[in-house]
Amino acid sequence: MSGTIGGFGPLRSGMSLASLEPLIERAFAQPRLKAVALVINSPGGSPAQSALISKRVRDLAQEKDLPVLAFCEDVAASGGYWLACAADEIFVQPTSIVGSIGVITSGFGFPDLLEKVGVERRVYTAGEHKSTLDPFKPENPEDVARLKALQQELHEVFKEMVRDRRGQRLKAAEEELFSGEFWAGGKAVELGLADSLGDMRQVLRDRFGKRVRLRRIQGPKRLLRRLGLGRGRADGGLVGWGGGFPAPEDWAAGLLAAVEERALWSRFGL
User: Fold this and answer.
1) What is the C-alpha to C-alpha distance for residues 185 and 77, in angstroms, rounded to an integer?
2) Residues 134, 157: contact at Cβ < 8 Å?
3) How many CA atoms lie within 13 A of 212 on its CB side?
4) Which residues of 183-221 are buried (b: 16+ CB within 10 A; e: fewer)?
5) What is the reported pTM?
6) Do 118 and 221 meet the contact criterion of CB atoms below 8 Å apart?
7) CB 3, CB 42: distance < 8 Å
8) In what helix (H) or strand (E) does residue 231 lie, and over which residues does it extend?
9) Residue 121, class by beta-carbon neighbours within 10 Å (0-12 exposed, 13-18 middle, 19+ buried)?
10) Which pLDDT band holds residue 167 (cuts at 50, 70, 90)?
11) Mean confidence (pLDDT) of the chain
């Protein structure tokens, strides 16, 4: 499980239930299976996709009655930590970045920019709050208040999930754990956000014996997809104009969608 969570289109890609579910199901369908290991490298992203992916892992773990172990490598922060909490045990490296249990909103304001460059902006809406937090309008305190209320609601869902999955293993006050702060792996173990230091191969050899066989389950890693220039199909192939590149008209649509999507994630991202 590597990369940001959520966001798909011609010029952007990330993890979602749609992209990961076939891999998750394949992992739990291996013969003579003793455990499933999740390798986590994610700074977070969509709250909804974080919850959906984690729930699918938990549903299969209960259905198959199998333990799930998470191994955090570079980063398991925010939504990435949500994914790690789908496991029964969480292992980290001393240099892993773990935590960031919070909700963030970021952006810029340009209320005077268009006037200075001689551009007239025209926005038409049906719905009083449809243009909430428009970056080309002065900040509205009522919009900010509504946004903070929504952030608080999402934060409570995140906190409840961590409480449910980590339970009595949490060893610090919630004010510290749920402040949005992040820590190196050793400190995360000390706080109870992770169970132990350890890398996947060594932990699994110690637990299941030196002859343990690891079967790696991962999707295709084609260059164009990694660059965000191709659109994936269910079979892992690429479709598009020019052998994998989006058609010219898709570039414009993709750019506009990416800007719009970024504005949305900047409001409601983990």
Assistant:
1) 11
2) no
3) 19
4) bbbbbbbebbbbbeebebeebbeeeeeeeeeeeebeeee
5) 0.79
6) no
7) yes
8) strand 231-232
9) exposed
10) very high
11) 82
Residue 171 and residue 161: Cα distance in Å, rounded? Answer: 16
Chain centre distance of CA 96: 16
- What are the tokens at 223? 């260059």
Q: Supply 99's token pair.
A: 């935590």
Nearest Cα to Cα of residue 188 among 169, 163, 160:
169
Lowest mean pLDDT, pick from 24-33, 119-128, 181-190: 119-128
Structure tokens at 160: 């409840």
The neighbouring-strand residues paired with 104 are: 269
Amino acid present at 108: F
Euclidean distance between CA atoms 166 and 156, whole angstroms: 15
Averaged pLDDT for residues 212-217: 92
Residue 46 tokens, joined? 């969509």
The tokens of 137 are what?
């309008």
At 117-162, the pLDDT tens digits run 888 888 888 888 888 888 888 888 888 899 899 999 999 999 999 9
Report the phi/psi class of residue 169: left, alpha or beta, with left for phi > 0 and alpha for psi in -120 to 50. alpha
